[in-house]
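Methods: example folding runs. The two proteins below were folded one after another, and each record is reproduced exactly as written to the output file, sequence line first and structure-token line second.
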Amino acid sequence: MHVAVVSSRVDALEEVFAGALKPHIPEGVTLRFYADSDALDDWGRGAEIALGAPDVLAPLLERMPHLRWVQSTWAGVTPFFDVPRRDYQLTGVKDIFGASMSEYCLGWVLALERSILSHAQAVSWQPRIDRGLSALRVGIAGVGSIGVAVARAFQPFVQEIRGLNSDGRAVAGCDRCFATSERLSFARDLDVLIMILPDTPATDGLVDANLLDALAPGALLINGGRANALDLDAALRAKASGQLKALVLDVFEREPLDDDHPLWKTPGVFITSHTAAPTDIASIARVFLDNLQRYQRGEPLQGVIDFDRGY
């Protein structure tokens, strides 16, 4: 069984598979590693399985006619939807980014609500009393596996946690959940809005001027999901008016953000260069090997992506 591994981080993946995880590669399975699309040879084009980053692997789908299963190394899989082909199973990686995203979101809320950044830059005695987190109403837009982990991380600290998903179904960690059709009720008087939304047509511009106006004055917005879901111009207007006191932005429609982009120097805007939940190569490899064993046994794979829903 041929597995083509295609990734710009191919050296790290090859090291993991050749090291601690080598004994777990099933007998009869051969992995070959490719650093980019230009390196793909006849062996790779004949592979039945592929593992890789969507931005590198998706353009190769039409050149790999024998593919039956593709394992993405990202939580988001948008590049695959730009390719018409649908005659294969696509799996994403779930349940491995929750801890790092929770650290990111909780860290920024603490930094801004407890004035940690201001104190770190102080050059004179500046005693001040912050409101802390206990009275905060926190909303998490996008309560899949990562959003649930974030909600659970905030539970001991805040007054209320609301979740937003497609149908309003209840999820662990949230006091209340709302459907996207109820997004303004979800947002009403929130002190903190955390976005962990996927990139789908249904989420385009979901967080717009109307939703931002529904937040509590001086709210904090954190976007650790996908850039398409946020109307950035509306968010910047809300920041300028004081409706938002700060924006923490990890993602943008076009990345990397140019060095001379004015956002780098906009007060109250914090840019984290798509590092909110970094990919752990060893965890990705373990997810893949678990699914590979399922594939060989003819069992359902974990993390299967629904092409119609987009996640």
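Second run, written to the same file directly after the first:
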Amino acid sequence: MLIVPDCIPCISNMAVSALRCLPISSERQKEIFTAILEIPAFQGKSWHLTSPEIIEQVWETICRETDQRDPFLQEKELQNQRVAAILPFLQSEIEKAEDPLRKAVHLAVIGNSIDLMIDNHAADIQQTVIEGLRLPLPEPAYSAFSKKLNNSRKLVYLGDNSGEIVFDKLLMQTIRKRLEMDIHFVVRSTPTMNDVTLREATALGISEVANIVENGVDGPVPGTMFGRCSKTTKELLQSADLIISKGGGNFDAFEEDAETLGVDVSFLLLCKCHPYRRYFGQELFSPVLWNVFSDQET
């Protein structure tokens, strides 16, 4: 999904939020933000790019200016710990549900609110979950997803943020209890923002439910862009019966590729911005389950 004017102030605010989280002085924040504003997108010169490609340039600037490869390393660990603390509550929600798969999918979508890059990023996680469950998953999208999943044997799951992956692990566990499934969980090869890498996925025990695979993208892109993936990951994506793509970064990076490649993808995310509201035809912050299947789109 290519950027539109709404994306520029959103990315700018994201950069400010990132700088605010770093242990640097206000003067240093100004210097780094000044360097960020030199990126062509902020002068209206990059309308041919996606948001993840612009954010890649922002993150390269932050890493260069702070001389750190992974500035949010500790914050990502804390995110996982914060969400893991409410794991008994999340498990209980799934276990008592009439349809455990539906509830696990719903929780996975709500988990997309765990994002350091936006203000008010789910300060009270359990309360955020309770409030999020009041907004239903879209139908008939869930029915189409469930049917496609039941007929699948190889699932590729594109991970998004740290913290959020606690919800993803629960969904993969729920799928495994229901179906014989070969599951592969794809993470970022290069650290970017609070996105999940091999380190965070391994620490959280994702390998208990899936084979962890790095996407092979050679830069801090907050999304899995097919054209920049490793040969191994490209082959994995093309051979999947179903791909679950989590979060806005993966949607922006992979949406056009999904249609071109003809693979079956279910995008799970929150409708966090006005471009998404227009694209999906849903209210802001409502849960999105958007299927792009070779035989239909819902």
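Comment on the second run: The chain has two domains: 6-68, 73-292.
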